């Protein structure tokens, strides 16, 4: 997918520019008023733009092709050799591209993204042909990661899993609140029967929403509870050590007993490679999606990127407020790019996340 940004005095003129440049197959990602003008961000599939059988496009550098193979192999020297050394890339790069490269490097480094992953994302971003860092990085995320928000009400029970303190219970509460307000009240089941106060924490908000709450102390009890359910089920679980085979096996057995989709919940702000390791561990027991919490209390969010890259989990939602009634947003490539490129010294403006989806 190639992403472009168009600015014009009016929406009609901006849309005309989109059609002239990208054709009728273009997808509008977002639109906004900026400095008295209209800025429209649009995308088009690479194949639709350059034709079937031509995936490189006219004039693109060689390193912009075969990204899957490029990711799997160590990076090599691509610049020509001059007296036995690589020719400096800056001598062949126009100022706008150099600024884009500098911006991308600064963002990826600030968020602690490891150099090899950062290099691959940077090259994907440059391949998008965008002039602005947010759009370029969004294109890289769109190419490299999967984004798949939960479809509610879900057909299968949802089992929320993760390490202790990751925010599973609050995340469940946020999703249950959204479902209840939309007219589909879920049933809540907790398997976290040993932690002091776990049941009381859930009971506090289920009473407000008048939602049924029950507990199950193991796979057999959970299977019985599922069999008698008459509404969509959300299942809370105890925090587990992702490096404990016994605890992970017990979690997997809960999912099997409930025939549930496993959704991993991780808190933002931790070491990126540690988050990647944890996400990999939960992916091995069948987790399919990742929800990230505590984004409002974290400035460095490279762990989100590393967790998705290391596990293959689909990025689903992000939690950015402590209230059960607010602060749950779906994730897409543009939203994630905006999160990373924002000024880290300024508070997160999650109204921007909603606008990015329009």
TrEMBL record:
Q: Which Gene3D superfamilies does UniProt cross-reference here?
A: P-loop containing nucleotide triphosphate hydrolases (3.40.50.300)
Q: Which residues form the SRP54-type proteins GTP-binding domain?
A: 155-342
Q: SMART domains, per this entry?
A: SRP54
Compartments in which it is found: Cell membrane
Topology versus the membrane: Peripheral membrane protein
Which GO CC annotations does the UniProt entry carry? plasma membrane
Kindly state which keywords UniProt assigns to this record, in alphabetical order: Cell projection, Cilium, Flagellum, GTP-binding, Membrane, Nucleotide-binding
Hydrolase as a keyword of this entry, yes or no, is: no
Pfam name, any one: SRP54
MF annotations from Gene Ontology: GTP binding; GTPase activity; signal recognition particle binding
The question of whether GTP-binding is a record keyword is answered with: yes
Give the family from UniProt: Belongs to the GTP-binding SRP family.
**Entry protein name:** Flagellar biosynthesis protein FlhF
Which organism is the protein's source? Oceanibacterium hippocampi
